[in-house]
Design goal:
- It is built from 7 helices and 12 strands.
- The protein is an alpha/beta fold and 306 residues long.
- It has 2 domains: 45-109, Ubiquitin-like (UB roll) (Roll), CATH 3.10.20; 112-280, no CATH class.
- Strand 10 (204-209), helix 5 and strand 11 (237-239) form a beta-alpha-beta unit.
C-alpha cells in the first residue's frame, strides 16, 4: 500500500516541472524574437505620403527618424507628438512599418478655415480650432468680435473667460458646417453679440445660439431653402435662437436690431418678449419650420422681443 501511494506524488512533481519547462521555453522564444527584431530590423528607407504644405524632408526631420533606427521601436504617438509640435499644419501622422527596413509616414494636414485676431495680429486657424500661423491677409472665414489670448502656432485657440462660451461654440459650428458641405460658402462669423453667432452664408445670414445641435439647425436651413417658398436671389436672415427645433426667416431690414443681452438660458424663446422691429413691418415670407423636412410656411406675427 505504501508503494502505491508514492506513484501519484511522482506524477504530480513531473507535471509541475513540465509546466515550468513550457514557461521557460515560451520566454526563450519571445526573447529570441525580440532580440532578432532589435538586431536585424533597422530603418533603411522612409517614405512620406499625403504632404502638401511641407516637404517630405521637413516631415522626416521633424519626426527625428534616422537611418539605422530600430523599426520596432518607432512609436506612432511619439512621432505624432514630435511632428505636431514643430509643424502646425500637420494634424496627425499614421506610421506604417514594412519589414524588414521601410517606414511610411502618412500625413494628414490641416487646411485654413478662418482668420482670427490675437495680440494685435491676424492668425490663420484650422477648422479644429488650432492656430497655424500669422498672416497679413484674411483667408477663409473672417471671425470678428472675438480675440485670441496668448496665440501660439500649433496650439488650440484660447479666449478670455468672458468669451469662453463663444470660443467653445466656434469649433463645433465649423465642424457642422463642414460636414454639411457649407463651410466654404461662409465668409464671416460675427461674435459681437452676447448670446449668438451671426454667420454670413452667401447672400444670407444665419444666427446660431452658442449651444445646440448645429447639424439639426442646418437641416432646417436646407429644408427652408428647398421649400421653394423663398424668393430667389433675395437675402434672408435665418434665426435659430428664437425657439428650439425651429428656424425663423426674416427680411434683413426686420432683423437689423440690437441683440438682447445674454441670459442664463441661451435657448429662451422669442415669445418671452416682443420684437418691436418685427411688429412694425411683418414679413409675409417669415416662416418657421419645426422639422428638418418641413417646408417654410408663412409665420404669424411674432410677439415683440426685448
Amino acid at each position: 500500500m505504501a508503494r502505491e501511494r508514492k506513484h501519484p506524488r511522482r506524477t504530480r512533481r513531473r507535471g509541475r516541472f513540465r509546466f515550468f519547462y513550457k514557461l521557460i521555453s515560451l520566454v526563450a522564444v519571445v526573447a529570441a524574437i525580440v532580440t532578432a527584431c532589435v538586431i536585424f530590423f533597422r530603418v533603411n528607407e522612409v517614405k512620406v505620403e499625403g504632404n502638401s504644405h511641407y516637404t517630405a524632408q521637413e516631415i522626416i526631420d521633424a519626426s527625428e527618424i534616422e537611418m539605422g533606427d530600430n523599426l520596432v521601436t518607432l512609436w506612432t504617438w511619439q512621432i505624432n507628438q514630435l511632428v505636431g509640435s514643430k509643424l502646425p499644419y500637420v494634424q496627425r501622422v499614421v506610421v506604417g512599418h514594412t519589414f524588414p527596413d521601410k517606414v511610411t509616414l502618412q500625413v494628414v494636414e490641416r487646411t485654413v478655415a478662418a482668420t482670427v485676431e490675437g495680440n494685435g495680429r491676424q492668425w490663420l486657424m484650422a477648422s479644429d480650432g488650432y492656430l497655424l500661423e500669422t498672416t497679413n491677409q484674411n483667408q477663409g472665414i473672417a471671425i470678428v468680435g472675438l480675440e485670441v489670448v496668448d496665440p501660439q502656432a500649433g496650439q488650440p485657440m484660447q479666449v478670455s473667460e468672458a468669451d469662453q462660451s463663444k470660443g467653445e461654440a466656434i469649433v463645433p459650428l465649423m465642424e457642422a458646417l463642414d460636414q454639411a458641405g457649407k463651410l466654404s460658402q461662409c465668409t464671416q462669423f460675427d461674435c459681437s453679440a452676447a448670446s449668438s453667432i451671426l454667420v454670413n452664408y452667401g447672400i444670407h445670414q444665419l444666427r446660431f445660439p452658442l449651444h445646440g445641435d448645429y447639424a439639426q439647425m442646418l437641416n432646417l436651413f436646407q429644408a427652408a431653402l428647398d421649400s421653394g417658398k423663398l424668393p430667389q436671389g433675395e437675402a434672408r436672415v435665418f434665426d435659430f435662437t428664437v425657439s428650439d427645433n425651429k428656424v425663423f426667416v426674416q427680411n434683413p431690414k426686420q432683423s437689423a436690431q440690437p441683440e438682447p443681452s445674454a441670459s442664463p438660458d441661451p435657448d429662451a424663446t422669442a415669445s418671452d418678449a416682443p420684437d418691436p422691429a418685427a411688429s412694425q413691418s411683418p414679413d409675409p415670407e417669415s416662416s418657421a419650420s419645426t422639422e428638418p423636412t418641413a417646408s417654410a410656411s408663412p409665420e404669424p406675427s411674432a410677439t415683440p422681443e426685448a
